């Protein structure tokens, strides 16, 4: 086990550990909301930075704090706060979660746990390992997302064409960004600490 980026930048002191966790969860949830709302025009569909943020939070926070942060974000959305991409225009609360993107949103939980577990083992220090961690996290998002989409719309529909293929290129670009950013951030933090 190695210290995550967050643990290096803000070490947990036992007397204020709960406060640190609450602050980081709030910051992480706000970053997830902002990343969901930021839409970049792209072909064939626009993309957000939400999946990238989920995986970066996992790598930076570790699996426990990352999981708690994503759970808080999902709970905020389930309660009707407009934190998801396209909300409030495309719906709010549980109705939004029961829609086509609900499975992908639920996939955030295993994805952040996987990325966080790998981050705690120093996988954010190597570009190759970051790429593998990001790919594993993306798979953890896509599997429940596609399963839910198929169950919702019917397996006789072109589920992969709708729910996977349009996003591959943007996910490759996001993985490329993480491959550059995480090891660079680690080097900066290692020099600072």
Spatial ordering of strands, largest sheet: 1-2
State the end-to-end distance: 18 Å
Q: Output the number of helix runs.
A: 9
State the major sheet. Answer: 2 strands, antiparallel
Helical content band: 55-70%
Shape verdict: globular
Strand content: under 5%
Q: Poorly predicted ranges (pLDDT <50, ≥5 residues)?
A: none
Radius of gyration: 17 Å
Summarize the entry for a quick read.
With 193 residues, the chain is mainly α. The chain has helices spanning 5-9, 17-37, 50-61, 63-78, 93-97, 102-119, 127-153, 159-163, 168-192, and strands at residues 39-40, 47-48. The chain has a single domain (5-192), classed as Arp2/3 complex 21 kDa subunit ARPC3, CATH 1.10.1760.20.
Overall description:
- The protein has 193 residues and is mainly α.
- It has a single domain (5-192), classed as Orthogonal Bundle (Arp2/3 complex 21 kDa subunit ARPC3).
- 69% of the residues lie in helices and 2% in strands.
- It has nine helices and two strands, in the order ααββααααααα.
- Helix 7 runs antiparallel to helix 9.
- The protein is globular, with a radius of gyration of 17 Å.
- The model has no long low-confidence stretch (mean pLDDT 94).
Give descriptors for this structure:
2% strand, mainly alpha, globular, 2 strands, 9 helices, 193 residues, Arp2/3 complex 21 kDa subunit ARPC3
Outline the fold blueprint.
Blueprint (H helix, E strand, L loop, with lengths): L4 H5 L7 H21 L1 E2 L6 E2 L1 H12 L1 H16 L14 H5 L4 H18 L7 H27 L5 H5 L4 H25 L1
Antiparallel strand pairs: 1-2
Helix pairs in contact: 2-3, 2-4, 3-4, 3-6, 4-6, 6-7, 7-9
């Amino acid at each position: 086990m190695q210290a995550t980026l967050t643990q290096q930048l803000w070490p947990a002191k036992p007397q204020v550990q709960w406060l640190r966790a609450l602050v980081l969860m709030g910051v992480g949830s706000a970053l997830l909301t902002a990343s969901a709302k930021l839409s970049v025009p792209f072909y064939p569909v626009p993309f957000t930075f939400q999946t990238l943020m989920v995986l970066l939070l996992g790598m930076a926070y570790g699996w426990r704090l990352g999981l708690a942060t994503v759970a808080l974000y999902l709970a905020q959305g389930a309660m009707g706060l407009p934190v998801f991409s396209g909300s409030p225009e495309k719906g709010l609360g549980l109705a939004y979660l029961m829609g086509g993107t609900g499975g992908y949103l639920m996939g955030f939980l295993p994805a952040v746990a996987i990325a966080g577990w790998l981050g705690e083992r120093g996988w954010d220090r190597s570009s190759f390992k970051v790429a593998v961690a990001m790919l594993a996290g993306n798979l953890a998002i896509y599997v429940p997302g596609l399963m839910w989409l198929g169950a919702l719309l019917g397996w006789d529909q072109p589920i992969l064409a709708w729910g996977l293929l349009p996003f591959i290129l943007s996910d490759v670009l996001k993985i490329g960004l993480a491959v550059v950013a995480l090891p660079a951030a680690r080097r900066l933090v290692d020099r600072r600490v």
